[in-house]
UniProtKB/TrEMBL annotation:
Source species of the chain: Probosciger aterrimus (Palm cockatoo)
PROSITE patterns noted in UniProt: BTB (PS50097)
Primary gene name: Btbd7
Lineage: Eukaryota, Metazoa, Chordata, Craniata, Vertebrata
Role summary: Acts as a mediator of epithelial dynamics and organ branching by promoting cleft progression. Induced following accumulation of fibronectin in forming clefts, leading to local expression of the cell-scattering SNAIL2 and suppression of E-cadherin levels, thereby altering cell morphology and reducing cell-cell adhesion. This stimulates cell separation at the base of forming clefts by local, dynamic intercellular gap formation and promotes cleft progression.
Keywords, comma-separated and alphabetical: Developmental protein, Lipoprotein, Myristate, Nucleus, Phosphoprotein, Repeat
Domain BTB: 142-211, 247-341
Designated name of the protein: BTB/POZ domain-containing protein 7
Pfam family, one: BACK
Compositionally biased tracts (Polar residues): 1-10
Annotated segments matching region Disordered: 1-21
Any one biological process term the GO annotation gives: morphogenesis of a branching epithelium
Length: 707
């Protein structure tokens, strides 16, 4: 039996308010703020740090419309330029070479699909239904016993009353805590396992066992007539949240540090109270469950039962701001993260609101609120709320919010999942980012990650051009930081007068760009006579010219674009959409002219037969796995760490991971990726391994577990 109050109101009552005689328990720890979870830790503003010039007043609406047309025409013409450059490159190619390039693009496209799935992978959050099933199984905080066929079933009064009219009437006649109620069921054929299955259904919406009797329409009709037909679990739990029938815990918020330290104080020191059910908060949050179990061990629960009052839990508002309490409770009862609750109730001047006003964060954006709530969800160990906040932040990623979200998500207390979505947005919208001021706010690490991607949506010429501009901007910031304070902000400062390009120190610029320029694929720069590339070589930023500029080169650009004709280390061309579409268009035109070569397009398929590309239970034949040091099988005990960092999961978890890996390997999509990337099977295997690791909540560095 769990810990509960010894008496409950018989009728439903509003959520706010509580008995002033309730016992008090303080919740809070100073380590919360040190970990970056508290209100004091600064959230990055979603407004750009740089000052934007004031928009000039438009003289006429006609001029604005004309300007929009020019911008749209400029974008379409830019895409046409990329297509024209690719067509010029392929103009002298044989149809077999064009076919080989398109096949390379198709292989990269198949890898991108696996990469995106791995990016979206994360551990499955526990739903309300799963937590309610665990609540019924482990009997947290039960408050009434049902006796059926000499068997005791500890249950929760509020859950059964909300789900079943029969139990609502039955339990109202025995309101005392720990009441024992003998069940008398009129429906024939109900035994103990079936009664347990009925209770399981009321908790979860599922019977939880296979029994042919549940397929018997007559028995179901009799049960419905006796017990009533419950609504869906979501509807009944929403009603329980709205009316708080049989609540047994009160959440209070304190802004008085003395009260926090002494567990006492007057009622005037406490802010607004919220009612809840121990059964729900203990099943959804291990934090609350451990707290309530500790109260049982220390005997505090006996006091609550003696006084017949609900348990009061005092929360330190500097740790869990009161304004988020209703959002948290709403998610616990419904699995929905609804931030509109924050703005639906009038302000009462709480400590968190005063702190937000002082910090200039009173009018926080939706993403900023989700970031702050995400930290609280981690503190409460409430994964459904944490993932809901991640979804809200990911949905808010745009050109204006990109920098702030990248900075927040890259911090130790940020979300790795959100960070992957922000980097994906950066790669997909890189052309748009380059043309904006946001580009110059990108950190070197984020820029480096983007230009290493095979899926970056930009041409190599534009990448080189804007990388140099980014480096020049960083160098100017260095110069401005080095100038005397006396000149700062005056007409003679660097920010005011600027710096001419010829005055920039090439050596320092080369030092800034040295980690980035090696990842520009200069062999794939179009057009062949690129002025951007020539200028970079003249300035000494690039020392090695592409192969087509060397006198020993044979075949020109085809050496770099085609795997089978590349003399050195092959680097696959990026999956840049205008290039890909134009290459396919050129190939289709060639196929029309040379219909006898259609057989070359053997890998262009919509469905791959399983018998052709089935992979065995081990690593596929085409997959050249990276070798790792294997752990000896004759060890008496398994190692405690992998690579000195990652704890080894349980053997059961590893078996589940391997089963999931084999399941993914046999999917049509992965088989097709193996078929299109026969020379790079290790890359395909790595993508599905990373996906499995992320689904099980492990670090990417634990990949050797699956190798």
């Amino acid at each position: 039996m769990g810990a509960n109050a010894s008496n409950y109101p018989h009728s439903c009552s509003p959520r706010v308010g509580g008995n002033s005689q309730a016992q008090q328990t303080f919740i809070g720890t100073s380590s919360y703020s040190h970990q970056g979870y508290g209100c004091e830790s600064k959230l990055y503003s979603l407004d750009h740090g740089h000052e934007k010039p004031q928009d000039k007043k438009k003289k006429t609406s006609g001029l604005a419309t004309l300007k929009k047309k020019f911008i749209k025409r400029r974008k379409s013409s830019r895409s046409a330029d990329h297509a024209k450059q690719m067509r010029e490159l392929l103009s002298g190619w044989d149809v077999r070479d064009v076919n080989a390039l398109v096949e390379e693009y198709e292989g990269t496209s198949a890898l991108k699909e696996l990469y995106l799935q791995a990016n979206l992978a994360r551990p499955e959050a526990r739903t309300l239904q799963k937590d309610m099933a665990e609540l019924y199984q482990y009997k947290y905080c039960t408050d009434v016993d049902l006796i059926f066929q000499e068997t005791c079933f500890p249950v929760h009064r509020a859950i059964l009353a909300a789900r079943c009219p029969f139990f609502k009437t039955l339990l109202s006649s025995s309101p005392e805590y720990g009441a024992e109620i003998i069940m008398d069921i009129n429906t024939a054929g109900i035994d103990m396992p079936m009664f347990s299955a009925l209770l399981h259904y009321l908790y979860t919406g599922e019977f939880g066992m296979e029994d042919s009797r549940f397929q018997n329409v007559d028995i179901l009709v009799q049960l419905s007539e006796e017990f009533g037909t419950p609504n869906s679990l979501d509807v009944d739990m929403r009603a329980l949240f709205d009316y708080m029938c049989y609540y047994d815990v009160v959440l209070s918020f304190s802004s008085n540090s003395d009260l926090v330290e002494t567990f006492g104080g007057s009622q005037n020191c406490l802010d607004e109270e919220l009612r809840a059910h121990k059964a729900v908060i203990s099943s959804r949050s291990p934090f609350f469950r451990h707290l309530l179990q500790r109260r049982i061990r220390t005997g505090e629960e006996i006091t609550d039962r003696t006084l017949r009052t609900p348990t009061r839990i005092i929360l330190d508002e500097s740790i869990i701001p009161k304004k988020y309490a209703k959002v948290i409770l709403n998610c616990m009862y419904t699995d929905v993260v609804d931030l509109s609750v924050l703005h639906s109730s009038p302000s009462v001047g709480s400590l968190s609101e005063v702190q937000a006003l002082v910090a200039g964060k009173l009018n926080m954006t939706r993403a900023e609120e989700a970031m702050e709530l995400y930290h609280i969800a981690l503190f409460l160990e409430f994964n459904m709320l944490a993932q809901g906040c991640e979804d809200i932040i990911a949905e808010s990623i745009s050109l204006d919010t990109l920098i702030a979200i990248l900075k927040w998500s890259s911090q130790p207390y940020g979300s790795k999942w959100v960070h992957r979505q922000a980097l994906h947005f950066l790669c997909e919208e890189f052309t748009q980012v380059m043309a904006s001021d946001v580009f110059y706010e990108l950190s070197k690490d984020h820029l480096l990650t983007a230009i290493q991607s095979d899926y970056l949506q930009a041409s190599e010429q534009d990448i080189l051009k804007y990388l140099i501009k980014w480096g020049e901007h960083q160098l100017m910031k260095r110069i401005a930081d080095r100038e005397p304070n006396l000149l700062s902000g005056t007409a003679h400062s660097v920010n005011k007068r600027g710096v001419k390009r010829r005055d920039l120190d090439i050596e320092e610029l080369r030092e800034i760009l040295s980690p980035l320029l090696p990842f520009v694929r200069i062999e794939h720069i179009l057009p062949m006579n690129s002025e951007v590339l020539s200028d970079a070589m003249k300035r000494g930023l690039i020392s090695t010219p592409p192969s087509d500029m060397l006198p020993t080169s044979e075949g020109g650009k085809s050496n770099a674009w085609l795997r089978q004709k590349n003399a050195g280390i092959y680097v696959r061309p990026r999956l840049f959409s205008p290039y890909v579409e134009e290459a396919k268009s050129v190939l289709d035109e060639m196929m029309v002219e040379q219909t006898d070569l259609v057989r070359l397009r053997m890998v262009r398929m919509s469905n791959v037969p399983d018998t052709l590309y089935m992979v065995n239970n081990a690593v596929p034949q085409c997959c050249h796995m990276i070798t790792h040091q294997q752990v000896s099988t004759n060890q008496s005990s398994p190692p405690s760490v992998i690579a000195n960092e990652i704890p080894v999961p349980s053997l059961l978890t590893v078996k589940e991971m391997i089963r999931r890996l084999q399941e993914l390997r046999h999917t049509e999509q992965v088989q097709r990726a193996y078929a299109l990337n026969c020379g790079e099977g290790a890359t395909v295997s790595y993508e599905i391994q990373i996906r499995v690791l992320r689904e099980f909540g492990l670090s990417d560095a634990a990949a050797e577990l699956l190798q």
